[in-house]
Amino acid sequence: MKLFGIVFVAGLLAAPAVQAQVPDPGDIAEGMRLFQQKGNCQACHGWAADGRKMDNQMPDGSNLRETLLDRNNLILTIKCGRPGRGMPAFDRLAYSDGRCYGMKQADLKRLGLSIADPPATLQPREIEMLTDFLFAKIIGKGPMNRARCTEYWGSEVEACGEFPK
59 or 86: whose pLDDT is higher? Predict the structure, then answer.
């Protein structure tokens, strides 16, 4: 029994500390820029990421405010997209080597699935910053209202006028 206690304590000391890291505010701001500009996520998900897009020619994006995806699955979805569902893969090599869902371009073709082209590809660090932004400002934050709109934009802007005071 004494040996078990020593092994258990040694395991605790050797195990890396798992702590939720608070993203840097600069990374969150960069993630917002990626959402709005480089990734142009708002074209399908709407500026508030609530699925209310402004361009009817773009695919319908899901309401990210209500997503149940955890961080790892959200990163996977951004990297690999959703074949056959309009969500592009933002990883430049997504279906070149089986890194996404174990499939290559030939597998998608064989299954009759297409993958939308992204407006730009994102580096792994950019995908992490985009994910950090979504969890900090969007996911689980409830429907958009005037206070959230002002917090999202950093000040009262015209877009917030659609929400009552």
Answer: 86
